[in-house]
TrEMBL record:
<protein>
    <submittedName>
        <fullName>Translation machinery-associated protein 7</fullName>
    </submittedName>
</protein>
<dbReference type="InterPro" id="IPR015157">
    <property type="entry name" value="TMA7"/>
</dbReference>
<feature type="compositionally biased region" description="Basic and acidic residues">
    <location>
        <begin position="27"/>
        <end position="44"/>
    </location>
</feature>
<feature type="region of interest" description="Disordered">
    <location>
        <begin position="1"/>
        <end position="64"/>
    </location>
</feature>
<comment type="similarity">
    <text>Belongs to the TMA7 family.</text>
</comment>
<dbReference type="Pfam" id="PF09072">
    <property type="entry name" value="TMA7"/>
</dbReference>
<feature type="compositionally biased region" description="Gly residues">
    <location>
        <begin position="52"/>
        <end position="64"/>
    </location>
</feature>
C-alpha cells in the first residue's frame, strides 16, 4: 500500500467557457447596473459620516 492512494482524487480540469457575445441591450443593462452601484456606494460613504438617525423624540428611562 502506498501513501498516495488515500484521500480525495483531484478533479479533471474542465474546458474553458466560451465567451458569450453581448448585444446592445445587455451592454446597456450592465452599464446601468455599474452606475447604480456607484451611486449606492457614494450614498453609503455619505451616510457613514453621519451619526445615527434616531436622534430626536421622547427618551424613555429603563424604570417602570
Amino acid at each position: 500500500m502506498s501513501g498516495r492512494e488515500g484521500g480525495k482524487k483531484k478533479p479533471l480540469k474542465s474546458a474553458k467557457k466560451a465567451t458569450k457575445e453581448m448585444d446592445d441591450d445587455e451592454m446597456a443593462f450592465k452599464q446601468k447596473q455599474k452606475e447604480d452601484q456607484k451611486a449606492l456606494d457614494a450614498l453609503k460613504t455619505k451616510a457613514a459620516g453621519k451619526g445615527p438617525l434616531t436622534g430626536g423624540g421622547i427618551k424613555k428611562s429603563g424604570k417602570k
